[in-house]
Amino acid sequence: MKPEIRIPDFNEVPFIVIWELTRACELHCLHCRAEAQVERNPYELSTEEGKRLIDDIAAMEYPMLVFTGGDPLMRTDVFELAEYAVEKGVRVSMTPSATPNVTKEAMQKAKDVGLSRWAFSLDGHNKQVHDHFRGTEGSFDLTMKAISYLNELGMPLQINTVISNYNIEYLEEMREMVESLDCVLWSVFFLVPTGRGKNEDMITPAQHEQVFRWLNKIKDEVPFDIKTTAAQHYRRVVIQDQMRKNKDTDAQIRYMDALSEGKTGTIDGLGRAPKGVNDGNGFVFISHIGHVYPSGLLPVNCGNVRVDKLSDIYRNSPILKSLRNPDLYKGKCGVCEFRHVCGGSRSRAYAATGDYLESEPYCVYIPKAYRKKKKKVTES
């Protein structure tokens, strides 16, 4: 008998908390959201402030905590914070940059303190593509070396890939490489033009749809799970495909319909969200100096954890509350029948229009309400 899936109320608690420990990083990635710098900011949250934040996260029960940056390994207390969080019962993963800081000793320490997963970025199937995107020669070789260490230690590996004009032509090659690395999850990010990310680096709306359909096709063929970031409309593609296969066009649209059971089970201790997250809706981001944003790609300040508890900010911020109400979305997103399971990327809407409630500008789908309206106009 399958265990009952506990679905958190995203109005009360997030499923994922991202904490940008620092913006310091030795890489110079072309798309860097944080516009990372070489030196650490002296106003970063201190170790004690970080532990108080972790206490609040632990009290919310559900959240998975992800240490990111910059490069989280630029902080000397990163493993102290990780160990503290694990002891509090929080699931923790980390996304370090592929620099000389990533040693076998650092990975062993991460495993010893109980990190659930380690994620590395690979944005090209070879060093030419990846190193160009990461702005640092040798990044690809360092990443591959670090992955081999991780596999030796038997620690679950996640691969993060940003889809852009730099690698759109090499998706099949990327798939083959990811498959060879024995990872548990391929997390596919779709570029949002913020920080160093530029509009000209983005793929077109039609290419977004093509990549979604390709991911939906291969998800049942590969030995790892696939998830998308800043691509909520991928859920719509998966659900549409299942509705076609079931020949049930009137089926209730639910996020669970877009999920397989997952090939990796719970081996990494993380699991997956039982319903779709979006910026500010099941997902929240804390900056290196404590500002709370709906996500790192949606830099609208909702408060600061030095002033208020994260739980209070998450539950009560007018910005976050509006993001959790898809009926407030504008344009075609506001009337789309998939808005409660998709909602479009609020980050990309904000980057393109300055309004995080506007319609997802890189979605080609025409909602039923629009099609019916056009039909009536045509018939009249």
UniProtKB/TrEMBL annotation:
Pfam families: Radical_SAM (PF04055). It comes from Salinicoccus roseus. NCBIfam families: TIGR04053 family radical SAM/SPASM domain-containing protein. PROSITE patterns: RADICAL_SAM (PS51918). Keywords: 4Fe-4S, Iron, Iron-sulfur, Metal-binding, S-adenosyl-L-methionine. GO terms for molecular function: 4 iron, 4 sulfur cluster binding; catalytic activity; metal ion binding. Its cofactor is [4Fe-4S] cluster. InterPro entries: Aldolase_TIM (IPR013785), Elp3/MiaA/NifB-like_rSAM (IPR006638), PqqE-like (IPR017200), Radical_SAM_PqqE_MftC-like (IPR050377), rSAM (IPR007197), rSAM_sf (IPR058240). It comes from the Bacteria. Residues 11-244 form the Radical SAM core domain. The keyword tRNA-binding does not apply. This is Fe-S oxidoreductase. The keyword Cell inner membrane does not apply. PANTHER family: RADICAL SAM DOMAIN PROTEIN, TUNGSTEN-CONTAINING ALDEHYDE FERREDOXIN OXIDOREDUCTASE COFACTOR MODIFYING PROTEIN.
